[in-house]
Fold this sequence. Notes:
The chain is of the alpha/beta class and 555 residues long. 29% of the residues lie in helices and 23% in strands. The longest helix has 17 residues, at 46-62. It starts with 16 loop residues before the first helix and ends in a 26-residue tail after the last strand.
Amino acid sequence: MAIRGPLPDVExxxxxxxxxIFAQLTESDLGRVAVRVAASGEALTFAQLRAQxxxxxxxxxxxxxxxxxxxxxxxxxxxxxxxxxxxxVRCGAAASPMNVQYTAGEVAHQLTVSRARxxxxxxxxxxxxxxxxxxxxxxxxxxxxxxxGSAAGSLGHPSEVGAAHDAAVAAxxxxxxxxxxxxxxxxxxxxxxxxxxxxxxLSSGIGGLMKPVALTHRNxxxxxxxxTPVINQRRSQHVFLTFLPFSHVYALTVTMNCALAGRYExxxxxxxxxxxxxxxxxxxRATMVTIVPLxxxxxxxxxxxxxxxxxxxxxxxxxxxxxxxEVGAAVARRLGCTLAQGYxxxxxxxxxxxxxxxxxxxxxSAIGAPIPNIEMRIVDPLTGADLDIPAQGRSAxxxxxxxxxxxxxxxxxxxxxxxxxxDPDGWLHTGDLVQVTAEGVTWTVGRCKELIKAKGFQVPPAxxxxxxxxxxxxxxxxxxxxxxxxxxxxEAPYAVIVLHPGAKATPIEMLKHVSSRVAKYxxxxxxTFVEALPRRADGSLDRAALPSCVPTLKN
Length: 555
């Protein structure tokens, strides 16, 4: 039985992402501020941004980048990210968002599986990106470095970023300024929105290693059309503020692309800073901010909140991890705004659920209801049979399946992995266990997938297990998530390790081994050494039984 949300379906434009955002700019739109840097106030108008997008597309097209290729983006949230992302998409290639915290090994994996031809990197990500490119045999000029004086929100002092950019160019890397200065016209690329891939982020889906997600132009345009009625329930003009990384599709769609498509002003911060965020809301009269539960918890308790005029703020959207009723209510009360919870997956472009802004009766712990054009089913995770939805109260717990125009076309070059999560009728298995009411209000209550969510990011246990097994003393390893129990909904990876006979190692040694090879948010919280890991009859790891290997763990 398909369940729908309260808002009516919307028409999905049959357009490329570029056309949906930039092709219909009016004369009055062209002079509006499109994106700015919170710290400096530097801004690009829509006219300037479109010119940059076209220039980037022209340069890439002239260098052989087009359909079937991707360009990896190792950039912080900034105006440069916006022009780079849409320039790549404009030339017919796919943008592949990449976390700036990635190590060289993680970058090399993404460059390989996403079919990357070039990488555009901020100096903070350049060491890992350059090392990965060299490992793959790339020439240095295929790594493009930003930071040469453009309006980019920088990580680090501007002079240091500029010096790092100049040193990189001297070492043979290409300056992003060359792309922005390209005088040629962008290539004329025929795009079928339904099949042409526009974005290739990575996700572990319902388990396993990080996989390249193929999001088409239609997927991304559809999610914009689906989200807009939720955002515009109170007004049609906004000032969006975001510090969330555009490498996360949550921020990419809900803030970056929604702001551009709605002709809103987008104020960017390269990373989270509580005082900087509060100051930016006050300075730019922001009406909407996207946050994660960890930030919500800080806002509920930080004494600095009262020092700022936050009266312009109308609503905040919280996503990427569960939110408690207590924290949500405290934030809404303290900031005097509506706090809407949302849900999504990278494979869903990513949003499927948001709390309607006119429904204060829906608890903050709920992920809201399906947005327009989304169908939802709740099934028994063992049998796959649809569960009955009662007329009153919540349903029994089941796995949530969703279907809609924003569902990915599949995992790039991985048909078997695609078949595991996406059935022939278009239903995508989220791997999340939920309860739902007859009107579609939904609560997540657990996961039947393996994914660990740490600081709003995805941490696939299999990836950390592979890293641990590269240590010469490690014979086997299993990783699971431990709830931090701090109200944030965050987890931390915990490892259970089997050593080779006669081998010796310390927990600190294991922690250092992992931390030198993965991004910071994937760091292990701790490890326990055991004689053997729990395995099923078929030999596969029984991940659900791993916590029982740690009797002292208070989980």
